[in-house]
Amino acid sequence: MSQFALNVLAIGIFSLTMFSLLGPMLNLSPLYPAATVFVVLGLATVDQLGFQGQGGLVVLDWLGANTSDRRQRVIRHEAGHFLVAYLLDVPIANYSLSAWEALKQGQTGRGGVQFDDGQLLSQLSQGQLSAQQLNRYAMVWMAGIAAEELDEDSARGGIDDRQQLRLVLRQLRPVVGDSEARERWAILQARTLIDRHRDAYDALVEAMSQRLSVQECCDLIQQHLTPAVS
């Protein structure tokens, strides 16, 4: 069951409980709680069946995006993914910063950086992934967490990113163990990359805030890259 469905179920139970307690005091008909729960659950069902829960995500994302702090945190998180992907030559297809933007692009979920990962999926379908590819994508997936930790010493996002890495590790044959150790390694490596190219990262955050295109963001990164020390 999705998080949105769980939230709706909780709202339905809460509404039913409150109407049951307050209904007699306010002389409300018993039809009110039943109708309220029916409407709420009906909307949730339509969203799950017709929109794969995306409508609920859009609503929840909108309700939670009304603070500048959260909006900025999302941008910095996604900029971490974007920058590390660019530095490691992982093709970037597009990006979105909210569930609504993702929906308009034909994507699902809360948004984020989308990669051209056909080669990765092809290898995973056979249960195989080279160590180099695994390390590259692990760093890219953990880069959002690394970016948040650079600013706040802790990350509030990244649950989906961790799940993505763990899912891939479970698909490999033989199974790669100790996912937490690999996560820590990937976060450290991604954080080092972002810190080394902090000017490019800060410029990218500003560019993504203005919703510049992928190509414009890539050009801006290239302009601000810190030369490698020989």
What is this structure, in a nutshell?
The protein has helices at residues 3-26, 31-51, 54-64, 68-87, 99-104, 118-124, 131-152, 159-171, 179-196, 198-209, 214-224; strands at 92-96, 112-115.
Query: Stretches where pLDDT falls below 50 for ≥5 residues?
Result: 46-60
What's the count of strands?
2
| Overall form | globular
Rg over CA atoms: 21 Å
Physical arrangement of strands within the biggest beta sheet: 1-2
Taking the sheet with the most strands, its summary is:
2 strands, antiparallel
Structure, explained:
The protein has 11 helices and 2 strands. It has 230 residues and is mainly alpha-helical. It has a two-stranded antiparallel ribbon with strand order 1-2. The longest helix is centred in the N-terminal third of the chain and has 24 residues. It starts with a helix and ends in a 6-residue tail after the last helix. About 7% of the residues have low confidence.
Give the arrangement of secondary structure elements:
Layout: H1 3-26, H2 31-51, H3 54-64, H4 68-87, E1 92-96, H5 99-104, E2 112-115, H6 118-124, H7 131-152, H8 159-171, H9 179-196, H10 198-209, H11 214-224
Antiparallel strand pairs: 1-2
Keywords:
230 residues; mainly alpha; two-stranded antiparallel sheet
